[in-house]
Amino acid sequence: MITQIIIFLIGLGVLSWSADKFVYGASALAKNYGVSPMMIGLTIVAMGSSAPEIVVSATASLNGNPDTAVGNAIGSNITNIALVLGITALIKPLFVSSTTLKRELPVLLLVTLIGVYFLSDNYLSQAEGIILITLFVLVLAVMAWLSFKVEKNDPLIAETEDEIPSNVPTKKAIMWVIVGLIMLPLSAHFLVESAVYIAHFFGVSDLVIGLTIIALGTSLPELAASIAGVRRGEDDLVIGNIIGSNIFNLLAVLAMPGLIIPSMLDINVSARDSYVMLGLTILLFVFCFNLQGTRRINRYEGGIFVLAFFAYQYMLFM
Predict the structure, then answer these.
(1) Of 273, 10, 16, the residue nearest 122 (C-alpha)
(2) Is 227 exposed, middle or buried (0-12, 13-18, 19+ CB in 10 A)?
(3) For the chain, which has fewer Cβ within 10 Å, the N-terminal or C-terminal residue?
(4) If you average pLDDT over every residue of the chain, what do you get?
(5) Which residues pair with 297 in a beta bridge?
(6) H helices of the chain, where?
(7) Phi, psi of 137 (to 5 degrees)
(8) Is this prediction's pTM over 0.90?
(9) H-run or E-run covering 297
(10) How far apart are CA 300 and CA 195, in angstroms?
(11) Contact 312, 96 (CB under 8 A)
(12) Strand pairing report for 123-124 and 263-264
């Protein structure tokens, strides 16, 4: 048992490291070929932040654990909003000033509604997986197009430019992309196998292990990046990364079990977890577009998110 826990922790660490190196290499490579920082931020960086979840979901599906894959998608979205944004807002209130975020938030709400609808019958079909992955490609294309339409004074532009690596040789960038592509699936394989073993040892369902330990593990880098970002005053980038990550989780991550292993799911997916995810997404929308027009997530609202996260964890295990 101790061996499996060690394997899980090492797998989680390598998964996060390889995802970071993949994003680093891909961003540097795109910049070397003249891609705008805004496009890199809205596509490569946002997609890269969901790379661990995508690979873990695909690995779990290939191993015959669709509940773990679905739980990872839903749990990561819940963790991103309730824990990551909640703790970040407790440290410093988050102001929403970017017009890009105002466009992405309604997209997140719409995509969440689609995901909840697809999961409402406790079955994720191959057709639904195809629809989700097609929407994923369309969203990427729209975000790339929006990067050309952003106003020059949009604060997200400056914040994004600061995050894109500069002066990285093309050969070095390619090397890190290859390293990421190799290590991501390899680390995900050991992480999923050890997580399933641990879950069965303690009598926890595959769904719950995906909703909790795997979702929390794959979201920890988001928490660290968000805390660092808000301390630098990059509020729009912090919120934008979470919104982009959640959109990609619902489209790319949730598509994996549908595409690879269409099957019936744990009844709690539709009866409990998908509605918690929807409720938190609606709450995020309300907090960012409140009636006073201040458009920010304050400490009080961050506290609500954190309390909701721990209440949900208590509900799962009790």
Answers:
(1) 273
(2) middle
(3) C
(4) 84
(5) 94
(6) 2-32, 37-40, 46-49, 51-62, 66-79, 86-91, 99-119, 126-146, 155-163, 170-201, 206-209, 215-231, 235-248, 255-260, 268, 274-288, 299-317
(7) -65, -40
(8) no
(9) strand 296-297
(10) 34
(11) no
(12) antiparallel
Run of H or E residues at 123: strand 123-124
CB-based burial, 72-99: b 16+ in 10 Å, e otherwise: bbbbbbbbbbbbbbbbbbbebbbbbebe
Residue 93 gets which letter from DSSP? P
Q: Is the dihedral of CA 67, 68, 71, 72 positive or negative?
A: negative
Q: Are the beta carbons of 183 and 18 closer than 8 angstroms?
A: yes
Res 290: pLDDT: 62
Contact (CB, 8 A) for 96 and 235:
yes
User: Is pLDDT of 247 > 80?
Assistant: yes
Count of other CB atoms within 10 angstroms of residue 121? 13
Mean pLDDT, to the nearest integer, of 281-296? 77
Q: What DSSP string describes 156-191? A: HHHHHHHHS--S--HHHHHHHHHHHHHHHHHHHHHH
Q: Measuring CA to CA, which residue among 15, 40, 27, 35 is closest to residue 244? A: 40
CB contact at 8 A, 127 and 267: no
One-letter amino acid at 285 equals F
Q: Would you state the pLDDT for residue 96?
A: 77
148 band by pLDDT with thresholds 50, 70 and 90: low
